[in-house]
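Exercise: predict the fold of this chain.
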Amino acid sequence: MRAGSILFCAFLLQALAAAQVLSPEEIGDPQMSALQRKYLAELKLITKAAAAHSFPYHFYFSRTLDLAEKEQPRSDQRSVQFDRYQDQTVLKITGNYFASYSAELMKPEERARQTYEDVMFPLLQASVKALENTDVPQAFALEISHHVRKKMLGVSSEGVENVVLILPRDSAQRLVAAADPSARHAAIFEGKAFLNAVPISFWPRPEERAAPAQPAPEKTVQAPPAPAVSPRLAGYAGIPDRLAQPPAAILAQQPAPAPPSGDKPSSRDTSPDAVKNLQSSYQSDLDRMVQELNAQAHFVGYAPPAFVPFHKGLYLQLSVTTTLPKTAVASQYRLSALAFDQHIAHLIRPVLEYFKGHEDFDGIDFSTSVRLAGEQSSDGGAVAVEFIFPLSLLHTYAQFDCTGQQLIDASFVLINGERVSLNLQMSEAGS
């Protein structure tokens, strides 16, 4: 009986390994498909090692990121495959790690580092060992999601972050063979790491530890065009320079709107009475706006426009519904980017027409429930996105003095209550 149990476990392990490697027939690139077929046995060794490894929290190979854990067992888990990245052959591994970190206790780099240590490093160890006697890949590309808990506007929420590591083969071999942490860190520095498509470093680089960073001279850098890569990795091919700049530096490169006359006002009164008075003074304009723009905006009937306190200011919250084509099914980042480009961006100028010359509130919160055509509100598949824009930046955008991306970079974007960085071009290019 005991021997039978061991044989059954071995059979189950083999079956799981096969189920997590993409079949060669599903890869459209003939060269990548041939590599997948040639090294199929080696790839199964990677997933077999992962199945035997004890991760601190549940980890699943997955072709779809940002899934809820209850959805994961039913989803497609074949995510180990050869792919292309910047004219290189890479072994691509994607998966969901159901660790939930506290945003208050852990910085973004610390969260990314923990996911690297818990998941990425064991996967690299298995991958390097499985492919040590082959001439592929030229690099390893891992993308792992994890969860983050935080409070926004006093409401507890949980969101998802995606960590990407792209490491050359030689660096990965040195990483796995290294005995001391400093050598491992040096190997990691030879690759590229991203958190939600923004470049990061798991540890401070040696030059950052040696001396304090000196401010760089202000200048505009023209980013080179991104090379052609596979759709899944397209978001990490070329990170524009502006993502590394603070929002103020982004808009400093564009003509600024004329400042209001008089002295700079003090902090806005956000007391309940102030909110009530502001709502009363604009109610007729808000009612007229809803009536005239509803066909375009799709306002939520049970949540009429209302002024709300936010960041020591008062913002007009407009609750709308964004319906995208069924073909737009993708990650929450792509849905959010499409919601802005196809819906919210077209509302900004018409909405501003109702508030010309008014500076007694600070911005507009376009709060939208994004769903696919045919879905009902009871389906539970909607993504809640808030685009919170300062009024001065909205006027800059309306006058064509900044792009939609610059507007987003200098504002707040919340997905399901979690503040995120949203790159429109990269998000919409993702699978």
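Check your answer against the key: The chain has two domains: 13-203, 249-256+269-429.
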